[in-house]
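Self-study notes.
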Amino acid sequence: MTKAVNIGIIGAGTVGGGTASILLENAGEITRRTGFPVTLARVAERDEARLKSLDLPEGVGTTDAAQLLADPKVDIVVELVGGTGIARDFTLQAFANGKHVVTANKALVAAHGEELFAAAARAGVQYRFEAAVGGGIPILRAVRESFTGDRIQGLFGIINGTANYILTEMAENGTDFADVLAEAQELGYAEADPTYDVEGNDTAHKLAILIGMAFGGQVSLDDIYTEGITGIRPVDLAYAEMFGCKLKLLAIAKDVDGEIEARVHPTMVPESHLLARVDGVFNAVAVIGDRVGETLFYGQGAGAEATGSAVVGDVVDLARQVAAGSTGVPPMAFQQAERKPLTIRPMARIESIYYLHLRVVDRPGVLADIAGAFGRHGISIARVIQDSQSSGKTVSLVVMTHRAVEQSVQDALAEISKMDCVSEPTTLIRVEAEDD
């Protein structure tokens, strides 16, 4: 039997504890799959109480991460401390010490990935981060390895469980955003400070990783248009249902004439699409290849067990490579020298269908004035819904456009906002659907 491959975990929080539990409790099953032991040799955690709560074997726990990084017995380091500061330092030190690294840290990979990929290559070691996107869904492994025969044309993802849970509850119960958020925090689905999730930042970090892997290039977080769900109201979810759609916080990447669309925003999706049926805290990513067509990956997007499972999957994959003396697949699917800068299509030039919810004064001629503004900017209206019940002196006017250019829609709304018949800012939601 091949000698044991030894694992060291830095950070014993929710995911670190889950990973340690899987490696210890499923050690026999892992050995049956690999043909050799994959042994948890070290766990470094500065919080002694947390370390003791893991009930580790004698001599495995330590409060000194430097001790773990310097330990010659450790072959693979699992970095689970989070953030982009000390986690980056630990990762670079592990590489310098000739150790492979596995992480679930999407912020680190999105912000410093290029530096870390180059450092790993120089050291002749591997860097893996399956758990950084989609929790227990093996989406990165599929994009990195299973789509090598395809040119990926696009991908669409629901990759933040907190946002998806909030939108699901708002749609099903007609509850306001703030009330559902408070409930999600009580249930542990949302952090005390949920900004990172509800403003779309978490989704944008994950999309940056997916884009780099799918399209073979580099993308900056600054290039990804990001809009969260804090402005969504139950009434717009109800109108989405009238139009046969569900509302999701969607990560979108498309290859359009050699340029990459990269955007995160609330999006209406037809009820007939599989993504529309992904509710609660679940995640899903649809990948479209030029040969395979559309595929969907679905599952638990967070949690100790699901994310720990993805981490262990990377650990076992690397353990096999260590045992075989293999260099493995490049971390971003493409050979590093072949990865090229990506041209990101400006948001102003994207094309979409648009849902627009206006509050207007209830008087004759208003619809004609607004339709005229759309017409002057080359925007064709597909459907209009006007409230039959007046709320004081204003009513809702809901417009669904045909496919239009973003800049034209924004210009039209700028003109409409100056009309004295419009009582409040217009709600704009993009729609991913085939035009009628």
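Second protein, same conventions, sequence then structure:
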Amino acid sequence: MKFDWYNLFLKDLDLSFAFEIVLRTLLMFAFILILLRLSGKKGVRQLSIFEVAIIIALGSAAGDPMFNKEMAIIPSLLVFVVILGFYRLLTYFSAKSERFESILEGDPMYIIEDGMFTIQEETDNTFAKDEFFAEMRSRGIEHVGQVRSAILETNGQVSFLFFSDEKVRPGLPVLPKPYNKRSRLIEKEGDHACTFCAKVSNRNHSGKCDRCQHDEWVPAIHTTRIG
């Protein structure tokens, strides 16, 4: 069977409509930028889950008029106005009520306290450990014992508060090579960190962590932060 490349890439497209697509795309993109500026946000890292939903809605409203000749631009602009008005209304109520803001935006979540991961239900884990370790490494963190608190903010950023150098304790390494030494068997006595909750104990035998009941360990390290 011969494949119809023409229909795949062009079909009924003519040059006049191609020019119209360019114009529609530029107009809709400009309208999106204007609306985002009116919302008061400066960048993507400041967006909450609610605001990401707003962006998705804007993309949906803007996408069809960019290339569909059956779709007029004015109805899409009406959608933009409704979205902006709804956003402004919700942010107004959020500023008036902390409870409403909490329902809309969510609450900050502690990930690390006193050099250990907080113990939560498996269903409450909203981040991948590998991704979180990469975030820690990007902040110059070598092990969890350097961190007094880590808080997952409602906009997806992680805030770190550190121990002073003299208070840094042995901790779970986040660098790939030391972390990959994890095992259920402890062959040498010394400080070992639980790979699940990061509790450190001086161990000379294998077994379960008395804090989280997991049984995978890695030798702890006790270095201070650089920089």
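Instructor comment on the second fold: Helices lie at 5-9, 15-39, 49-67, 73-96, 98-105, 129-138, 176-179.
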